[in-house]
Specification:
By secondary structure, this protein is mainly beta. It is built from no helices and 10 strands. It is globular and about 55 Å long. Bound molecules: zinc ion.
């Protein structure tokens, strides 16, 4: 006689990234399309490289830590978007990534050019089917 144990597990809550270049999992990270001719990197899918016109791309993982290169403290936004927040451009080991600077007071005393930041994900809410939308930003490292 063999005993049978149910292997059925309740389904894990599904997660979907807000953008398709955000990869979730144990170590969330961004991926870019890298031109195989000139190594230019783009986060959006494109038919040809803006730098050299090449049409072959590889998906490459982007460093999750970087340096804040530019930022704007946004104090006015569309209704429903909490302000102020910090919109930034982060140099991730040579690749520029745009994202909000989160988990920090959104003021010039706490956000500075050259500060070290790292990728962070956060829940943007769960729909009726239990699927969680996940966004990303960068937080002080
Ligand atoms: Zn190229």
């Amino acid at each position: 006689m063999t005993s049978t144990t149910s292997t059925e597990q309740p389904p894990a809550p599904a997660q979907v990234p807000l953008v398709d270049y955000l990869v979730l999992g144990d170590e969330p990270h961004l991926v870019a399309y890298e031109c195989t001719s000139c190594q230019a990197r783009f986060f959006d899918r494109r038919n040809a490289c803006a730098a050299c016109g090449g049409t072959w791309f590889e998906r490459v993982p982007i460093a999750t830590e970087g340096t804040l290169r530019a930022f704007t403290i946004v104090s006015m936004a569309a209704p429903g978007i909490p302000v102020p927040f910090v919109a930034g451009v982060v140099d991730c080991d040579g690749t520029s990534a745009r994202g909000n600077i989160i988990n920090v007071e959104p003021d010039p005393e706490h956000v500075a050019l050259g500060m070290k930041v790292r990728l962070a994900t956060y829940s943007m809410g769960t729909d009726d089917a239990g699927t969680e939308a996940v966004g990303f930003g960068f937080e002080p490292a």
